[in-house]
Structures are given as structure tokens and as C-alpha cells.
Description:
6-stranded mixed β-sheet; alpha+beta; oxidoreductase; 23 strands; FAD/NAD-bd_sf
Amino acid sequence: MATDVVVIGSGVVGASIALELARRGWRVTVVDKAGGAGHGSTGASSAVVRFNFSTLASVSAAWEAHFAWRSWAEHLGSDVGDLARFERCGLAMLDVPAAPRSMYLPLFKEVGVPFEEWSSADLGERIPGIDVGRYWPPKRIDDDRFWTAAEATLGAVYTPDAGFVSDPALAAQNLAVAAKAYGAEFRFRATVHRVKRANGRVTAVMCADGSRIPCGVVVNAAGPWSSRINKLAGVGADFTVACRPLRQEVAHVAAPAGYRTGDGVGISIADMDLGTYLRGEVGGGLLVGGTEPECDPLQWVDDPDAVTMHPTMPVFQAQVTRAARRLPELEIPNRARGVVGVYDVADDWTPIYDRTELGGFYVAMGTSGNQFKNAPVVGKFLTTIIEQTENGVDHDERPARFVGEHTGLEIDLSAFSRKRPYNAENSGTVLG
């Protein structure tokens, strides 16, 4: 029953870590309380693939990862059956003071991300029917100021290579099947009860059913349950970045006719000016999510298991009404439809990919709803950190560096350290 590595969590991040470790010859066992891969936060993801981040490491990671999504079968390395698809539709990041072009365009240039700078006239031409008014800052829809006419216009930065993954849960399942082909084992409906340790190192994982899995390495990729797992392992005292579970809703509506292109997918829109993001679906649907505007209280939760997983009318109406302000042809249904997820949010909305003070215990946490896109490289990040650390190199003192196989970009993985300084340049939202 022994294994080299236990990965806790089989979402898109945990499954990616399992695949990369198994590829390298590690014996891997993945445990998850759910009934299958991708059944947690991953399944509720909007699966947007974009490159707008506030740090060089995050932009580099997203650009490297998008090449894996574009060549998904080759990335997996084995036949896994039906594949999740990457839909390249482009993304328009509307101008907003909280995330000005000066924040990320220098990073785009350094990394090599193609982009176009649009004026308000360009924006109106490229996205038919869009209202190019500037409404900053976002306001509640019950605030009379929300309905005030715009006195100025805004432009956007367009990244043509952005898009989304058609089925996020299927993407996690693809990774899990590929990991199994390399020898990884998955145990579902297995709740971690205890992390055993001796002489400063992890020695086994105990499950609630009494089963014991001896191991030398544990990777905590448990999403919104990750802080709970850290407590079981007795780690976290030296973290400078905290994480909390956050309940989020994404609305599903029919896209207005003017927004759709021939295949039913329009350009995705990151609209922090009104506090929303929008991305199309093949077949004419539209997903509408929030960007955590200051006027909306964040729904922090203590227990992810106690979250109501049904969309609510107040949130649905707020998000869709804001979207309709931007796309005036959008109809607002009188019944809430969408998905609810729970994000594991870090203080600075940047993930923690690192070792911990317990030997052999690693974390891939604080993914903040923005790391689905980076999952293909996160597995490689953790494999790099684990192999260096287990070979006696202190990742705290000599941070591991990762070189992308597609881009050749070198990423200093200390950017995702549990001990990093708080990133004051972050947007304070899911955009990172």
C-alpha cells in the first residue's frame, strides 16, 4: 500500500501534479473526498485562459501554459478518450484605473505575448453592440449612480491568443487518465483524516476509513480545503501569505445576437470598470462572473462543505445587469441559472507553490480562481520544486527555476513562495 507521493486533491491542479510526477517515475497515489477528478472547484471554473497578471512570473506561466492547452493531446502524452478543447476567441481587457495598461503591457512585451491596443472606436467596431462608456468605479445596481449616463469612453487591450477550455472537469479527468497511464493510482471518496510525521518528516497519510498510506512526500492540492489539510499536518506557522475559502457564482445566460460570431463564440471581455467578466460558449451561451468590486461584499466561508451550491437571485441579477449595461442587447432572465464554486483565495490573489517547514510536505494552494489556466505548468512547477528539495537543495535558500519547454522562458519559482513579500501591485481581484 506504500507509495512515494500522496497528492491530496484531484482537481485540475492535483491531477496535473500527479501526471508530471508519474512521468518522472514517482509512484503516485491521489486521494480525494469527491467521487471523481474535477468534481470540486475545477468543475465550477469558467476556465478562461488569459495572460493579464500583475507579475512577470504569472504572465510567463500563463503564456507557457496556453501552448499546452493548444496542443492538449500532445501534452497528455497518451490516449485518454474524449478531450477537453481549447477555444481561441481572444480577450479584451477594458481600461480601468485598478489595472492600467502600464501594469501589464511591459510584461507582455518582455514575455512575448501578442496584443493590440484599442481605442474606444476600435472596441465598438470589434465587439458589435458593446457600450464603450466608462462607468468607474463599479456600483451596486440598487445605487442610483449605477444608472447614470457615461460621460467618458474607454478602450481596451486585446490579446488574440486568449480563450477558454470547453469543459474544465473533463480537462481534470483527461489529466487523471493520463496520470494513470503512467502508473498513478486514484482513490476517490477518501477523506484525509491525519498526516503522520516522525523526525520532522511526513511518513503517512491516514484516511477517515482507517486506511493508511505510507509515503515520503505529500502534496496538498486540496483547493478550498487546503488550509484544513495544512492544520492536519501542523504546517503554516512560517507562511507570510494566508488563504481563505471564498464562495463565488457564475451566471449562465443566452448571449445577445450581436455578440456572437459565426461559431457562436464572441470575444471574452474583462470588465473591471463595471465589475464583471464575460466569456462566450459554443452554441450561443454567455458566462458572466464577478471581479470582486469593492461595492460587493465578498462571501468568505469557514467551512467549504457548508456552502449552498445553488445560484442566488441577488448575485445573478447584479452580475447579469452589469453585463447588460455593457452589452445592452443582453436579456436578463427572471430566474437564476449558473454554477457556484468555492475558491481558495490567497491574500494577494497569487498562488503558493512551495515546500513547507515539514519535510516532504508541499503545497499547491491559494489558486484564487485564476490558476485553472496554469494547471499544465503547475504540475511541472511542483515536480521541479520537489525533486530539487528531495535531492537536498533548500528551495528557500536556492529557489528552483523552471524553464518552459514551449517558450524557453525561465521562471523563478520563489515568486510563488509561502514566505514571499505581499504583492502590493496586485489588482485585489481574481485578475491577480
